[in-house]
Amino acid sequence: MTPQPCPSETPLVKVRDLCVRFSGTPPVHAVNSVSFDLAAGEVLGILGESGSGKSVTLKTLLRLLPERKTTISGTVEVEGRDILSLQGRALADHRGGVASMIFQDPALALDPVYTIGQQIAETVIRHEGVTRRDAMARALEMLELVRIPSAKRRLDNYPHEMSGGMRQRAMIALALACRPKLLLADEPTTALDATVQIQILLLLRELQQEMGMGVIFVTHDIGVAVEVSDRLAVMYAGSFVETGSVADIIRDARHPYSKGLLAANLVGAVPGTRLDAVPGAPPPLNALPEGCSFAPRCAHAEPACGLSPLPVWTGGGGRWARCVQASRAEALADSGARA
Amino acid sequence: MISFILRRVVYTVPIMLGVSLVCFALVHISPGDPLVSILPPDASVELQEQMMAIYGFDRSYPEQFMRWLGLAVQGDLGNSIATGRPVATEVFNAVGNTLILAVTATIIGFTLGGLFGFVAGYFRDSWIDKLATGISVIGVSVPHYWLGMVMVIIFSVELRWLPATGAGPGGSSQWVWDWEHMQYLILPAITMSVIPMGIVARTVRALVADILHQEFVSGLRAKGLLDRGVLAHVIKNAAPTALAVMGLQLGYLLGGSILIETVFSWPGTGFLLGQAIFQRDLPLLQGTILVLAMFFVILNLLVDVAQTALDPRLQRG
C-alpha cells in the first residue's frame, strides 16, 4: 500500500453537493448530493453496482453528459477551476488537457476509421499546437510508454486490428498523451479477460505513480478497486454511503452495503457454498425512498432508517459512513468507554 | 489495395457476361413481332421471312446471342430497325445527354440531400430536423413526372421564364455549356434531383444520428476536440455508407428516367428506351439496356473501391 497522500491546501478535485438529474418522464435523480476531495497524486476508487451513478459522477468531471437533458447542481472544481461553468474552448481545453478519461470498452470508444497514431496525434495537436510530425513522435512515445510491442508499426493500426488488451493500452496512451493532472477511469478493465485485467491495472498504477496523477477509478469489482486505490468510496443509488482508506474499509466496513459487497467477494469463499450476495435490487432512481436508500434491502433495517437526514458517522483519517447503526454503535462504544 | 482493385475488376467480367445474357433474354422473351414497325401490315409471308433473315431473327437464340455478344464486344450493337442508324451511335449520343442531365441532377440532389440530412441528424428532433425531414419525405414521395408537369406549368407556361421541352438549339447532339442550352437543363435537372435528394437526406440523417450516439463521439469530446474536429470524424464515419447509397442513386439517374425525359422531351437514354419499347426496336432496346447495365456494373465497381479506400474495416482482413 502506498503512503497516504498528505492533505494539501487546495485539493486537485473538490466536489460538493453534486446532484445530477436527467429530465424525462419521470425525471431520474442519478447522483444525489455527492461530496468528496481528491488530492494530487491520489487514487480514489468509486465502488458500486450498475446504475449507482458512479459513471455519471465521473462524466460530470468532464461535462460529458448530454447538455439538454441534464441538470447539474453543486460545486465541481478541478485545480480550483469551476468545471460546471466552463464553456466552448475553455471546456475543450479542460477535456483531455487537464483531465482525461479511459472508457470501459476501447472497441467502442476509439474511432473505427482513424488509426491509433492519428487519434493520439490529433489530441496532441489540439492541446499543444505542435506539428503533425511532432505529434506523431509523441504518439509513438506514448505507445512505448504503455508497452505496446512494435509500437512503430502499431501507430498505423486501426482499432479493429488490435486485441482487446492492446486497444485498452492504446486508449490509456491516448488519455495520457497530454500529461493530464487527473485521470478518470470508467471501469477500464471490465471488458477485458482476467489475465489482461491485472496487466492493465498494474500498468495504470505504475503510470499513475510515475506521472503523479490523481485518478478516480470507477468499478463494480471490489478486487479491482482494492488493487488500484488509496481510498475507496462506496456508492449506492446515487449517493456515497461510505468512504475511507482501502485498509479501513476492508478491515472494518461500517455500512451494511459495503459489508455486503465485501461478503459477496469470491476471495475467501468456501467452495460449494452459495455466495453471500446482497438480496434484492437497487431502488429506481426516480423514486428513492425517504431516508436510507439501502434500507429496503438491509437485513438490519429499523424505523429510524426511514428518517431524513441520516446521521453520518465519522472516524479517523477522513472516513465516514452514512448509516444509523454505524453512528449509534460508535455512540454506544463511546458511552461504554466513559462509564 | 492494388491487388484488391485488380481482383474486383476481374470479378466484373462474369457479372457483365451474366448481365448481357439477362438483357438479351428479357428482350427476346417478351412477346411481339420485332419487324412490325417497318413492315406494312399486309406484307407477304415471304417478305417477312426475308426480313427475319436479314436481321438474323431466324437463327436459334444461342446463335443470335453469341453473334450479338461478339459484335457488342467490338463496339457494334447492330442497326436500329426503325431508323437504320447504328445503335451504338444512337446510344452514345443519348448517354451523353443523359450524363449532362444526371450529373447536374446528382450535384444538386447530393449537395442538398447531404446538407439536409447532416443538419437534420446533427440537430435531431429540433425544428430544423423536422423541416429537413419533411422536405426529404416530400422529395421521395412526390411522383416526379407530376412534379415535372407542375414545373412546366408554373415556370414555362405561366411565368414564361424557362423553355418547357427539348435540349436546346441543335437538338440531341449539339450540347454546349452556355445559357442558350442550359436554360433547357434547369427544369428537368431540378425535377430529377428531388428523388436522390430525399433518399440521400434520409440516409445521411440516420447515419449521422447513429454515429453521434456511438461512444467514440464521447471519446472525441473527452479528449478535447472542438465541434469542427468532431464533425470531421462524423463525416469520415458516415462517408462509406453515404457513398454507397449515392453510387446506387447515380446509377439509377444515369439509366435515365424514362418519365422525366419523356415529360421534358430530353433526348437521353430514358427517352431512347421509351422509343425503342414503343417501336419494338429490338437491337436498339437491347443495346441501350446493355450499355446502361454496364454503367451500373462499372459504377458499383467504383463505389466499392472508394468505400474500401475510406473504410479500413472493409479490407485488409
TrEMBL record, chain A:
It is a peripheral membrane protein. One of its GO terms (biological process) is transmembrane transport. Keywords: ATP-binding, Cell membrane, Membrane, Nucleotide-binding, Transport. Gene3D superfamilies: P-loop containing nucleotide triphosphate hydrolases. SUPFAM superfamilies: P-loop containing nucleoside triphosphate hydrolases. Belongs to the ABC transporter superfamily. InterPro entries: AAA+_ATPase, ABC_Ni/Peptide_Import, ABC_transporter-like_ATP-bd, ABC_transporter-like_CS, Oligopep_ABC_C, P-loop_NTPase. It is found in: Cell inner membrane. Pfam families: ABC_tran (PF00005), oligo_HPY (PF08352). This is Peptide/nickel transport system ATP-binding protein. One of its GO terms (cellular component) is plasma membrane. Residues 13-262 form the ABC transporter domain. One of its GO terms (molecular function) is ATP hydrolysis activity.
TrEMBL record, chain B:
Residues 95-307 form the ABC transmembrane type-1 domain. It is a multi-pass membrane protein. One of its GO terms (cellular component) is plasma membrane. One of its GO terms (molecular function) is dipeptide transmembrane transporter activity. The keyword Transmembrane applies. It comes from the Bacteria. InterPro entries: BPD_transp_1_N, MetI-like, MetI-like_sf. The chain crosses the membrane at residues 9-29, 99-123, 144-162, 182-201, 242-264, 284-303. It holds the Pfam family BPD_transp_1_N. Its main location: membrane. It is found in: Cell membrane. Keywords: Cell membrane, Membrane, Transmembrane, Transmembrane helix, Transport. Belongs to the binding-protein-dependent transport system permease family. This is Peptide/nickel transport system permease protein. It comes from Roseovarius litoreus. The lineage of its organism: Bacteria, Pseudomonadati, Pseudomonadota, Alphaproteobacteria, Rhodobacterales.
